[in-house]
């Protein structure tokens, strides 16, 4: 157990490991894998409830503040539980020590939050330096989580939808992220807080295919604005405002998704299954050369990914951006190579090259390998690159 591990470290004059950067996270994971021969191990993170703060906080047992984190998706419950931290490869999970807290918020809502009696919840726009913060979906959601133990808003009725629009109009916010997302890019939309999708207000021809997240239109101008109150699907790197949601005083904390790591019976633990390809994927969250990346994949009985349609290309882009660290892994090796350095490329698994997404001027000759770009004007395009460059590493393998 976590307490036993921490005690052993203290007996040796130390603490369980703390992690303060993406580089350090990668180093710890690499050390555990190569020296300890394990991919699952305790870290020194734990939650506590500060006496002068109504919200749970994370800290390291060596006394350092948790200024960097690499939480796995759906680990929002850690805000509400007394937990300690387990790491699997480079994904961090919460391990419950006690049942969830049901401590109500002080007052009806925290200072500066608006209360809606129909939902008995509190709402606040995402702000920074006194102004509205425009950020991508993941950053906005993390702001709600890290600052208040909140989540992006979920909406379950037309009345709630309209109230939210009027509330945010008063903040001069014309569009806002809401917590509706498409985590596997399969068209199965979910609320980030785990509540059921029992109401929608999609705009015409929405949700758009191969999109990940949703924003709500609030604009009042013109008065007959046909987009007002409607939801529109977007890529998660769009920059827009956001709104957080909390339960009000007297309500227990909302039901969260399980704190165990997400698991599909079609894939190993920490791998993500996509029905479109019938394969499992894992972002290794390391910058590696082409050969290093392929070796890392083969160590876990996988290989570099192959892509055979525009839908698969878009799926991998969204998965990479979702699972990659902010500092590494955004442009990623794919399993396309030119064995004779003549510009003729083929897939490493021998499958047909029946789809390509080359950038202008590509493929280049005298280059061996190719990568998938996930950001900026080159998003979705493939570019050739010398195989000794360090870029992100994504692995794929067949499902069970």
UniProtKB/TrEMBL annotation:
SMART domains: CLECT
Pfam families: Lectin_C
Domain C-type lectin, chain residue ranges per copy: 1-94, 118-245, 276-396
SUPFAM superfamilies: C-type lectin-like (SSF56436)
CDD domains xrefs: CLECT
PROSITE patterns, per database record: C_TYPE_LECTIN_2
Protein name, as recorded: C-type lectin domain-containing protein
